[in-house]
Automatic annotation (TrEMBL):
PANTHER family cross-referenced by the UniProt entry: GLUTAMYL-TRNA(GLN) AMIDOTRANSFERASE SUBUNIT A (PTHR11895:SF151), TRANSAMIDASE (PTHR11895)
Transmembrane segments: none
Keywords: ATP-binding, Ligase, Nucleotide-binding, Protein biosynthesis, Transferase
Name of the gene encoding the protein in the UniProt record: gatA
Top EC class for this record: ligase
One cellular component term from this protein's GO annotations in UniProt: glutamyl-tRNA(Gln) amidotransferase complex
Pfam family, one: Amidase
Name this polypeptide is given: Glutamyl-tRNA(Gln) amidotransferase subunit A
Organism: Arthrobacter psychrochitiniphilus
Active site: 52, 127, 151
Length: 452
């Protein structure tokens, strides 16, 4: 009912691309019947969840917000979907995103924009704007997102919700349509830190179907969220991830969060990660390189809706070209071109090779920082939500929004965003980001619960 009330129409939120009402209601009714029969059920049984439309689901369409997959039905469930079904959580439907998760505003969806519930003329973040908006607008208490460079955390920040990118390998990527495989990670979107922890416990764990899946992912996440204690902990403020270029209202809320942590018994110290200034540049070479390879399969032969050229001859190259010209949007094409260029003979070492070396330096910065502190903290984004359309013709300024989220993906470490209050200038939500070493996901939940 809530989805019907707020999601549709000219000025609707449009968080959902597909609503799975019948199945969701059937699962809910089944849970009620089992509860009435005193069956022991999972803690989250009956709690509805929305799914980012980059994650494949049997019986519901999966589009990646692209025309090239319009009408496609996956013959199998992603591992996370199997786990959600096993916990008996009703799936409300599939949420909007930037096409193939490329973007920071959900304006690059082939199926229309999503609006920020806090201000309908502003972006809900991206790429997972649909999942964040659904939770912020009370359409769903929980959602799944994917985070390659910030697509769970940045939408979380600008919609006042909680979002977590788990340690790389903590949650199976099997059935998440790949954007940049070495960076992608599925994670929870929620209203509270404890809810996110409970959801990560449902979806996490080793999966033989994902070769990068950890055999020993961190446990005790919900316990850590319930504990919520920072007494005696050392928390590092990353010098490079706040200050210049960050909105004053964002800085103010960030400083308040530091005060709260101090009051709760944490020691706040400043740390420097000097190579972070190259992280954005490295990401925007590595990510398009991997995406150009991952998206090669959408050629109208192996995957994707086939478009025939309007004139002869119908060679396979011309069919593939017509398919990709018609099926992909501008941002996806931009990144494929960037990626194939960066990987081409003669340029490979100058671009891709350098980017990989920067990636190692970013990882070393984190190692040095975590040798001094338990957790790192920063604002999640430099600004609050901007106006729809404001940056659509300026990809570079859009990419700059990822400055604080990208280092975690390059290093594979866990990151959590939670609401830090509203900015003085515009009354819009500000996100606070917590980062911990790989496999120490419990730490971001433990500290996050104190700031809530
Ligand atoms: N905004 C980033 C990008 O456009 C993040 C994308 C993501 O995490 N999927 O690449």
């Amino acid at each position: 009912d809530r989805i019907a009330e707020v999601d549709g129409g000219e000025r609707g939120i449009h968080a959902f691309l597909h609503v799975n009402a019948e199945e969701a209601l059937a699962v809910a009714a089944d849970v009620d019947a089992r509860r009435a029969a005193s069956e022991e059920l999972h803690e989250l049984a009956g709690v509805p969840i929305a799914i980012k439309d980059l994650i494949v689901t049997k019986g519901q369409p999966t589009t990646a917000a692209s025309k090239i997959l319009e009408g496609w039905m996956s013959p199998y469930d992603a591992t996370v979907i199997k786990k959600i079904r096993a916990a008996r959580m009703p799936m409300l439907g599939k949420t909007n995103l930037d096409e193939f998760a490329m973007g920071s505003s959900t304006e690059h969806s082939a199926y229309g924009i999503t609006r920020n519930p806090w201000d309908l003329d502003r972006i809900p973040g991206g790429s997972g704007g649909g999942s964040a908006a659904a939770v912020a607008a009370f359409e769903a208490p929980l959602a799944l997102g994917t985070d390659t460079g910030g697509s769970i955390r940045q939408p979380g920040a600008v919609t006042g919700t909680v979002g977590v990118k788990p340690t790389y390998g903590a949650v199976s990527r099997y059935g998440a349509i790949a954007m940049a495989s070495s960076l992608d990670q599925i994670g929870p979107v929620s209203r509270t830190v404890l809810d996110a922890a409970l959801l990560q416990e449902v979806i996490g764990g080793h999966d033989p179907l994902d070769s990068t899946s950890l055999t020993d992912p961190s446990t005790g996440l919900a316990d850590a969220a319930r504990l919520g204690n920072v007494a005696g902990m050392k928390i590092g403020v990353v010098k490079e991830l706040h200050g210049e270029g960050f909105q004053a209202g964002v800085e103010n809320r960030f400083n308040e969060s530091l005060d709260l942590l101090r009051e709760a018994g944490a020691e706040i110290v400043e740390v420097s990660c000097p190579n972070f200034k190259y992280a954005l540049g490295a990401y925007y070479l590595i990510m398009p390189s991997e995406a150009s390879s991952n998206l090669a399969k959408f050629d109208g032969v192996r995957f994707g809706n086939r478009t025939l050229p309007t004139d002869a001859p119908l060679t396979i190259e011309r069919v593939m070209a017509a398919t990709r010209a018609a099926g992909f949007g501008d941002e996806v094409k931009r990144r494929i071109i960037l990626g194939t260029y960066a990987l081409s003979a003669g340029y490979y070492d100058a671009y891709y090779g350098s980017a990989q070396r920067v990636r190692t330096l970013v990882q070393r910065d984190f190692e040095a920082a975590f040798a001094q502190v338990d957790v790192l903290i920063s604002p999640t984004t430099p600004t609050t939500a901007f106006k729809l359309g404001e940056k659509i013709d300026d990809p570079l300024s859009m990419y700059l929004l990822d400055i604080a989220t990208i280092p975690a993906n390059l290093a594979g470490i866990p990151g959590l965003t939670l609401p830090g209050g509203l900015a003085d200038e515009d009354g819009l939500p500000v996100g606070i980001q917590l980062l911990a070493p790989a496999r120490e996901d419990a730490r971001v939940y433990r500290v996050g619960a104190v700031l809530e």
